[in-house]
Amino acid sequence: MTDRRDDGEQASGTPASTAITAANSRRTLLRGATAAVPTILTLTSGAALARSSNCINLAQGAPVDPDGRHLCLDFHSVTRIGDKRYDLGAPPSGSVTRIPADRTYYRSGSTHKVSVQEMCSNGGQYYYKTSGGALQSDADGWGSSGRGGVKDDADTKKVTFTVPKGGMVSAAALASFASHISFKDI
């Protein structure tokens, strides 16, 4: 016979109460194991989290690296995964065009200045004046032809280059991927 209290529980120390305590311990163990199962299942998706570490966000504005260059990430070398977020892949790789900040740039076939941000976001053919250069702005900025921008002297040397369509990134964002990025200097 077991001792029962008025509240329906068995008194401690009896064989029946020991059996109930053991059952509760097993239930607690099973609850703990059940709580651990989602954690174990989450570990298998760790590869997705590790992959996300190869992502880079586009920069606001036109940041300059310590060497005075703008960095334009080529969109053809990465996968877009969000508004301004790109995946460099596994293993990470990408192409970046480094554009010096101390030059004035023009769209090929035009005498109108373009910003580095415009070059990077649109891609295409551009040129800049040489340091001994003869591309000089008139006082009114319209040039002798009235077309605007710059005028050419006889010894003008235009250095033409191509910028792939892309987005501006910061040197800090590229720091952890530097050994996996191919750079093209303008």
Which key features would you list for this structure?
single chain; 186 residues; alpha+beta; four-stranded mixed beta sheet; four-stranded antiparallel beta sheet; 4 helices; 11 strands; rod-shaped
List segments where confidence is low: pLDDT < 50 over at least 5 consecutive residues. Answer: 40-52, 133-151
Order of helices and strands: HHEEEEEEEHEEEHE
Measured by DSSP, the beta-strand proportion falls in 25-35%
Give the distance, in angstroms, between the N- and C-terminal Cα atoms.
94 Å
Radius of gyration: 33 Å
Largest sheet: 4 strands, mixed
What form results from the Cα inertia axes?
rod-shaped
Number of helices: 4
Number of strands: 11
Average the pLDDT over all residues and give the rounded result: 76
Instruction: Assign the structural class, choosing from mainly alpha, mainly beta, alpha/beta, alpha+beta, or little secondary structure.
Output: alpha+beta
Helix content: 25-40%
| Assembly level | single chain
Major sheet: arrangement of strands: 10-2-5-11
Description:
The N and C termini lie far apart (94 Å). With 186 residues, the protein is of the alpha+beta class. Helices cover 26% and strands 25% of the residues. The chain has a 4-stranded mixed beta sheet with strand order 10-2-5-11. The protein has a 4-stranded antiparallel beta sheet with strand order 7-6-8-9. The longest helix is centred in the first third of the chain and has 30 residues, at 15-44. Strand 3 and strand 4 (85-87) form a beta hairpin. The protein has 4 helices and 11 strands; from the N terminus they run H-H-E-E-E-E-E-E-E-H-E-E-E-H-E.
